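RECORD TYPE: inverse folding
INPUT: structure tokens
STRUCTURE:
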């Protein structure tokens, strides 16, 4: 029998108000392994109301040390349950267990990072021109935060938002993707065990109707969303009508740029990891590989040789190097883009089709795919595929690399491979992205801010800036003089 999950609202586990559910499919074998509740508008309103009560009655009055203690406890529980949680996430979205397990520990690290901030949300004393006035600015929580996450890395994406929101003193309502909801609900069991007050963390699951009900509710004070630019635009438009602030972490079409003077061994590994790790289903995927012509042929040959050796298989097996597409719609989307690339004239180097045979037969597997001689105007180079498809684009001079790299609607990440320090510094300044890696790729930390520009969204997650996204500034002026100043008094 599939596992039957329930909503988590006001510290209680409950079925949706109308009892509706939907199946969770394992993308490796297409088996239904869990039943997820389909929340109603009534459930959404109940979750928001529970968060508001908890905020007003409990959480906003809980001091930073107590919030930190609970976050540290949650981090410890996540570490203790990393094996079980990673297995569940791998079952739910097909990502290899080596990565889901590391993401559980990274999520715990982020919890600990923001726990350290919980009692250090300090304001600033501001010297004024008026000597009799004392002025300071303080930071306060917004209140109730709507958190909406994507299916590719549910716990990792949740960790980018939740610990910072809680450390700052907010309460939350979480809506995970309907394609991968189970680990978020399992995470709430750890929240419950850690001892967070009822209503501080709530989860409603279901399709896009649930997300729209959450975003459109006037009881939400801020929205933090990770997902596609299309949905991000809808959320931003709704938030604008309601005058609610948003943080948007959207897609990417990141350029990974290899210059002829690069360390070729490192660059090849970085290029492979940049696109084929997580089956390419990550917003920071280095899906456009720009290679300087003197090493263009060499790089393609080495990439193709290694890509053909990538081990596809049961994502639960630690020997597996690449898992499945996370769900059937995404599987079809990736294959459609491969067909488009062929028709547009890109040269297929390797892959380009589903992987079948043996244990792969039922899974949503796609061979690691490399297209060469790609023009940056092709759809395969302009649109986010979110799959294991690499477009290799040649360039001659540094200025051309900058022009091609920035010629995209997106601006999330960028990789630069060179041993020339001066060139690296020029590229850092020239590239239009929220994140630039030099001689590495896909490195993430709890301390550094993460986010994009242009269609990749706005606002930042992680790091100190990630904390400030969940606080609002309040300025205070105090007149400590004995003088009474009547602005309407007539001066003699």
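DESIGNED SEQUENCE:
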């Amino acid at each position: 029998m599939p596992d039957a999950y329930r909503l988590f609202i006001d510290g209680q586990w409950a079925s949706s108000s109308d009892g509706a559910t939907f199946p969770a499919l394992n993308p490796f074998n297409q088996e239904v392994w869990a039943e997820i509740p389909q929340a109603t508008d009534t459930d959404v309103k109940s979750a928001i109301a529970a968060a508001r009560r908890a905020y007003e009655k409990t959480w906003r009055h809980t001091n930073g040390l107590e919030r930190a203690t609970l976050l540290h406890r949650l981090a410890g529980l996540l570490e203790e349950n990393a094996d079980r949680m990673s297995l569940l996430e791998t079952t739910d979205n097909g990502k290899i267990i080596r990565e889901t397990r590391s993401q559980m520990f990274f999520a715990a690290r982020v919890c600990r990072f923001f726990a350290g901030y919980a009692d250090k949300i300090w304001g600033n004393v501001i010297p004024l021109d008026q000597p009799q006035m004392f002025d300071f600015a303080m930071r306060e929580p917004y209140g109730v935060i709507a958190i909406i996450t994507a299916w590719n890395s549910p716990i990792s994406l949740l960790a980018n938002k939740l610990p910072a929101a809680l450390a700052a003193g907010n309460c939350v309502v979480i809506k995970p993707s309907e394609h991968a909801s189970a680990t978020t609900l399992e995470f709430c069991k750890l929240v419950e065990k850690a001892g967070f007050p009822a209503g501080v963390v709530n989860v409603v699951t279901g399709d896009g109707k649930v997300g729209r009900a959450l975003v459109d509710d006037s009881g939400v004070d801020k929205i933090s969303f990770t997902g596609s630019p299309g949905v991000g635009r809808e959320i931003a438009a709704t938030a604008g009508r309601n005058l609610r602030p948003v943080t948007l972490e959207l897609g990417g079409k990141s350029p990974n740029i290899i210059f002829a003077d690069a360390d070729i061994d490192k660059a090849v590994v970085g290029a492979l990891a940049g696109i084929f790790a997580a089956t390419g289903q990550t917003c920071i995927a280095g899906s456009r590989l720009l290679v300087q012509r003197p090493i263009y042929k060499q790089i393609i040959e080495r990439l193709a040789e290694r890509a053909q050796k990538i081990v596809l298989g049961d994502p639960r097996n630690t020997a597996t190097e690449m898992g499945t597409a996370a769900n059937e719609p995404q599987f079809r989307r990736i294959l459609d883009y491969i067909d488009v690339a062929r028709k547009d004239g890109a040269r297929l180097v390797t892959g380009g089709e589903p992987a079948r045979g043996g244990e792969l037969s039922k899974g949503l597997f796609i061979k690691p795919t490399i297209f060469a001689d790609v023009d940056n105007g092709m759809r395969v180079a302009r649109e986010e595929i979110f799959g294991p498809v690499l477009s290799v684009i040649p360039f001659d001079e540094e200025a051309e690399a900058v022009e091609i790299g920035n010629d995209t609607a997106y601006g999330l990440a960028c990789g630069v491979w060179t041993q020339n320090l001066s060139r690296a510094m020029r590229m850092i300044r020239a590239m239009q992205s929220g994140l630039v890696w030099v001689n590495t790729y896909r490195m993430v930390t709890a301390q550094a801010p993460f986010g994009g520009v242009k269609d990749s969204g706005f606002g930042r997650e992680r790091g100190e800036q990630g904390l400030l996204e969940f606080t609002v500034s309040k300025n205070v002026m105090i007149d400590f003089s004995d003088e009474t100043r009547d602005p309407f008094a007539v001066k003699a």
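NOTES: The CA atoms of residues 268 and 302 lie 7 Å apart.
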